[in-house]
């Protein structure tokens, strides 16, 4: 009988009482999203746009590190000290900063859009352990977005995959490459490569894009390539 009276008192799904609606909104869980994807798939760009559109807090490793350094937190001072020594920031420290940000009051109010976590390298935790961290969050994600097979749409002739766990100097020694301007030039090169290999050789501008997960050595490789080819 009581439940029937309650249904009659609240016959609509939406709350039309202003005070009750405001109270319900303030007590409700904020929207939380996680964007997954391979390196270079555009997950960071998408996550940032979603955060702006949904008025959520954008959470990503490099952003969290920069924020802690600017605010002079304990983690920020530790990161600054390591970077000044030329050392990389351990993943366990980055993980702690990300989890601390997720538990902050502003995220509890606005919600979050998280990307770049779990880490791929598994240096401090395996991917299943990192996923367990996510599932144990107080603010669990409502939506998971997985950007799939971005690299599959690239022409394999222009895509070089290297092992980011190797030293930068070793990764740089990928071997000799010939960049040709067209299919016609490729056919001529295959038939007789000598005109292309003997001086004077053309030095047309070439655009190279180096991408990879955070702290994988992208900047170091870019500097080595630019220095070698005077770009």
TrEMBL record:
Molecular function (Gene Ontology), one example: ATP binding
Protein name per Swiss-Prot or TrEMBL: Nucleoside-diphosphate kinase
GO biological process: nucleobase-containing compound metabolic process
Claim: Repeat is one of the keywords in the record: no
Xref: Gene3D superfamilies: P-loop containing nucleotide triphosphate hydrolases
Recorded family membership: Belongs to the adenylate kinase family.
Organism: Lamprotornis superbus
A Pfam family the protein falls into: ADK
Keywords on record: Kinase, Nucleotide-binding, Transferase
């Amino acid at each position: 009988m009581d439940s029937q009276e309650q249904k009659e008192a609240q016959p609509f799904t939406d709350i039309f009482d202003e005070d009750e609606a405001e109270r319900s909104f303030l007590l409700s869980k904020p929207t939380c999203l996680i964007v997954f994807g391979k390196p270079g798939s555009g997950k960071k760009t998408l996550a940032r746009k979603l955060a702006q559109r949904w008025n959520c807090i954008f959470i990503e490793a490099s952003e969290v590190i920069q924020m802690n350094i600017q605010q002079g937190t304990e983690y920020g001072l530790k990161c600054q000290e390591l970077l000044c020594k030329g050392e990389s920031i351990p993943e366990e420290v980055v993980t702690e900063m990300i989890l601390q940000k997720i538990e902050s009051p502003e995220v509890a109010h606005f919600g979050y859009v998280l990307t770049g976590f779990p880490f791929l390298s598994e240096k401090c935790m395996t991917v299943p352990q990192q996923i367990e961290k996510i599932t144990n969050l107080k603010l669990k994600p409502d939506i998971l977005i997985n950007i799939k097979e971005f690299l599959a749409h690239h022409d394999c002739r222009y895509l070089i995959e290297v092992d980011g766990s190797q030293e930068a100097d070793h990764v740089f020694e990928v071997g000799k490459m010939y960049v040709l301007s067209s299919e016609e030039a490729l056919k001529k090169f295959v038939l007789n490569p000598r005109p292309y290999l003997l001086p004077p050789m053309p030095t047309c501008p070439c655009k190279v894009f180096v991408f990879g997960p955070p702290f994988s050595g992208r900047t170091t490789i870019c500097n080595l390539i630019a220095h070698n080819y005077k770009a």
